[in-house]
Design brief:
Three copies of one chain form a homotrimer. By secondary structure, the first copy, chain A, is mainly β. Helices cover about 0% and strands about 35% of the residues of chain A. In chain A, strand 20 and strand 21 form a beta hairpin. Chains A and B meet through loops of A and loops of B.
């Protein structure tokens, strides 16, 4: 692992731990995260601190990987995929004061080895996407996806119990 | 209020009225809008002319705030949220000529104080999101959301009449 | 047609064939595609190699046009619209090796003259959107849209057989 720091027109990288042969395209904002060997990160992607991405993954353009997300090896994240880490987000507290990091706790999300998340999917927090599962494009995933299953819809339901390869 | 103008690799800001302590992250495109005190604007956000954003708001990455949108104080706008100001958009007129600003009228949208809009939500035009309401992640909001309600789905329906804090 | 190449803080353009009066805004990533006369391309848009966009189109901010997509003249593509070219995407092959271009084939998508695709819509691959059709905001289009029809929802269904102008 090496640590990447770059402030350029193409990329804003702050303390990004990167394995061998990681490729990060232009217009990317990433900080305090880790990215495994051979993984590609597309344009207009933001990856927040504490997010962990495995080896041989593809993180496609316009996606957002937040704090609390762990993505294992060989995962495909489509374009415009959004992860979430707070089920009841608020800008301000009940007394009207602005929320800060101490006002909320991160709900974790786990994407298991070899899963694929279709473009424009939204993955709610506290969810596990099982090994080799396939989340259909445009789905809103609100609960765990079993290993190998195909899910789709808003909210996402199981279409097939085993997914094609 | 001061007026921000900046053309840099990080930001394109043209005539942005900004209050005290506004924070605008990198890769942001904003013009002719106003942003209240203490509000934060994330990466890959576009804010169009005439949009008004209140104080103590959080506008998260990848969101699009168009002309005709008014966001009151203390509102949370999640990641990848899209507002709309034209219910029947067209690139060209019936005669095949390109549309210009004179060919359409803006339908306004109002987000009331303290509301939260979940990530990846789409808010159709002509809609009011009530005070303190919570729009679930991935929802498509096609009609008014009552104050304090929780809505979700495509189209969004009421899940609870009062939202948690 | 001229060929645009630009590496600047505003734009990354590589071998983009552009007609007369094409306007490309800032924070755009486009390569190996063609864009017809008078078409506008908004911020945070990515257009991949082989994509073809006609004349007098509007491609709004945050949209993603992938390889295999053909957009005819006078088409409106809203904000945050995502096209797809692979129904079963994977990052790795069954043996765990990373996929490359030889491991998948592109499924084409066609958007006919004068159609409008609402913001945040997702268009699955292998689909034709008919002439003058209107795809509602936030829709997930999984099958062909007849000419002139209005569709909406996830999955998108026909709301009206003929669309307003």
């Amino acid at each position: 692992m090496k640590v990447l720091n770059e402030q350029s027109p193409s990329r804003s990288l702050v303390n990004v731990e990167a394995g061998e042969n990681v490729r990060i395209f232009n217009f990317v904002n990433a900080y305090g995260c880790s990215i495994g060997d051979n993984t590609k990160v597309g344009s207009f992607v933001e990856i927040q601190k504490g997010a962990k991405i495995g080896r041989n993954c593809k993180i496609s353009s316009h996606s957002f990987i937040c704090e609390g997300v762990i993505i294992e090896d060989g995962v495909f994240v489509g374009h415009n995929v959004t992860f979430i880490n707070d089920r009841y987000p608020r800008a301000v507290n009940a007394d009207g004061s602005q929320q800060t990091e101490v006002d909320w706790t991160v709900s974790p999300t786990l994407v298991r080895r070899g899963a694929s998340i279709g473009s424009s999917a939204t993955i709610l927090c506290g969810v596990t996407v099982g090994e080799g599962a396939l989340v259909g494009a445009g789905s809103v995933v609100t609960r765990d996806v079993p290993p190998g299953a195909v899910v789709a819809g808003n909210p996402a339901n199981i279409l097939k119990k085993s997914s094609p390869r």
